[in-house]
User: Fold this.
Amino acid sequence: MTDIVTDISTLPSASADTIERARDGWDAWRSNRLRSVTAPTGNLALIETRWLAAGDTTTAQDALAGHAETVTATELTRRSLETGEVERGIRLWDAASSAIRAFETIDVFPFDPSWVIEATFTPVSDDRTIPFEHIRDNGLTRDLVVPGDIAFERDGIHYTLSAFDDDGTLLLVFGDPSNGADGDEGTYASGRFLFVERDGDRVVLDFNQAFVPPCGFSDQYNCPLPPRNNRFPVAVTAGEKRVALRQAARREATQRGGSQP
Assistant:
């Protein structure tokens, strides 16, 4: 990590009011998460992401041919890493997908007030980007706009984190030693996400709302991985851990040689 200091901080991670507000909103956040991932176009419903070749005029409606009535289609775009040109894609979502049927819950840590952190936000140039590696990009990186630095101190360590602009919202992609660890303290292997609440030069990092990224629910997502400065040297024991499948689904995955997301 960056800028390790010797004096242990005695300041609270956040004000009592900020912590209480986070605690009051936690149950509703948890309920909303469980509803959202099982929605007809939620994370568990994604069954295909198809990138079209240049000149391919396939529409979302065309892509539905031969699929059940529970399947819907949407379009999306990205910039090609090879050519820099904009590529068009189609996603298929199944409201009755096998992943939705197998889903039990998302394991989560109990609410921990020590992981509610008030930090400072320092804006930077609008054209500053940071390279993020994505799971399905074979080691290549995509430059994402990072509008500012998020800085705080915890247990004598100074952190400067980078959250990128996700359609007007700050999204932090972070990692820690719990990623991929066995047992009840383990979390999703590739890291976790956190939406950052910003008010001017102040931000709140409520790691109790850290969540399993979309790629933890479907391999049809291409999730960014945590950059070096967003990797904690200590386990972040707050927020979501892993996706939990029903026992029968876990046995079936094991018999096929697969693994739980």
The chain has a mean pLDDT of 90.
